[in-house]
């Protein structure tokens, strides 16, 4: 005989939430809240009767007032449903201090970073082509000190010491005016995700003079055989893109859509590494785009320990202030690049220097300007070319082996902003790897720019000089204590510099401006945040006020 199947009752939760419905619970369980539970949770100790506070009080008596805490807790993950623990917490009005819950959460250490920039700095003496269009090799002078401001945070100092440490608030390289229109604000984490593969460039033209590197003399320099840094008064130019006559001719022939120099392009490609504020002017003329710099701006100077945890600051000690060190580093690089040249070597001059005029009496520094075209288009159907003016400082062996020359400078390993640097004269020959690693940390942005400039120029080697002060308290006399050679691409890879990411940044900024109407735009690095901002500015945004006043006075006289 078959038995009848009776369907058991189904308790449906009408409100749609998980857990039993309040209408289906038995009377004894209605006032108990429900907490989620997972079968994978492991049950350990229910309660911990060990009270560190009481033991600390007992220990303080035994050790003469010094309080110690010896609570041993095994770290673990937070249990599923731990947010509901307060619903079941045992509370007793009279004896609540004798009971404590076991804390099984793993402590996490927060990581904080302070973005630092650079206060306004003094400039080199203006040349005939602009404030910094032509940079001579004069000795450094004390530049005008910037207005770095300090603010005190209400939170504890770095490292958990509990004191308020002043935080530097940096100035803008150029202050945005009220009539500037903010078009785009891009954070560095967005820039780090960009990528674009670019093929080998095409060499278009070469201008200037190139001479050989004196390897017989300078490859033997070390801490035991120092060589004084010589002061060579030679003309060297850093003309902006739109004022370059060669680029103007190439633009007129429609050889490319975008034009820039290696110094400007390298800063943009390394933008996420920068801490100091910088700015560049982007001008769209028709369907062409020009990346320009301002005379006397950040592109005319070399930074020092920009990425250090505690970088140099402009203070009463102007000798090792950020502005003085930057001017000193610029002066060192100019003289070092001229000194390593072998004057008796045969010069290679494909075309004359486009910036040197016959009226100038100062001798010309040997440098070769190579104009190279990069294809930064995305697909085969698209055509978007970029022409870059690059610089090569010398050739090695034969004229078809171009190299670039750069110089790191040591000022005082005990001064603020030195970044825990080792003494070069004592450790460079034996611990060069540690010194290079420290320089990569403290000058990440600068070294990355140098590597990319060498890559853009097609240099096969980059000669890095180590220049130190004769006396830490004297920034006028220096000695060369070592020289090291690197392949630019390998050096960039060692610093984790991505060429594809750099080209992705360049293409993104170019697309943003090419979508805008004709006019002038400014790209600015925020001095206190990891952000770059794109502004639309008036055509006369950076014209000198003095010239306008003279014109008005002249018209009134007429």
From TrEMBL:
Q: How does it assemble?
A: Component of the eukaryotic translation initiation factor 3 (eIF-3) complex.
Where are stretches of biased composition, namely Low complexity? 114-155
Please give the name of this protein.
Answer: Eukaryotic translation initiation factor 3 subunit D
Q: What would you give as a GO molecular function for this chain, any one?
A: mRNA cap binding
Biased composition range(s): Polar residues: 58-72, 101-111
Q: Where is this region: RNA gate?
A: 298-312
Keywords (A to Z) from UniProt? Cytoplasm, Initiation factor, Protein biosynthesis, RNA-binding
What information about domains appears in the record's comments?
The RNA gate region regulates mRNA cap recognition to prevent promiscuous mRNA-binding before assembly of eif3d into the full eukaryotic translation initiation factor 3 (eIF-3) complex.
| Pfam families attached to this UniProt entry | eIF-3_zeta (PF05091)
- Record InterPro entries: eIF3d
Function text: mRNA cap-binding component of the eukaryotic translation initiation factor 3 (eIF-3) complex, which is involved in protein synthesis of a specialized repertoire of mRNAs and, together with other initiation factors, stimulates binding of mRNA and methionyl-tRNAi to the 40S ribosome. The eIF-3 complex specifically targets and initiates translation of a subset of mRNAs involved in cell proliferation. In the eIF-3 complex, eif3d specifically recognizes and binds the 7-methylguanosine cap of a subset of mRNAs.
What phylogenetic lineage does the species belong to? Answer: Eukaryota, Fungi, Dikarya, Basidiomycota, Agaricomycotina
Q: What does the sequence similarity comment in the record state about its family? A: Belongs to the eIF-3 subunit D family.
Q: Which GO terms describe its cellular component?
A: eukaryotic 43S preinitiation complex; eukaryotic 48S preinitiation complex; eukaryotic translation initiation factor 3 complex
| Annotated GO biological process | cap-dependent translational initiation; formation of cytoplasmic translation initiation complex
Intracellular or extracellular location(s): Cytoplasm
Primary localization: cytoplasm
Q: Using the UniProt annotation, give all residue ranges assigned to the region (Disordered).
A: 54-80, 97-170
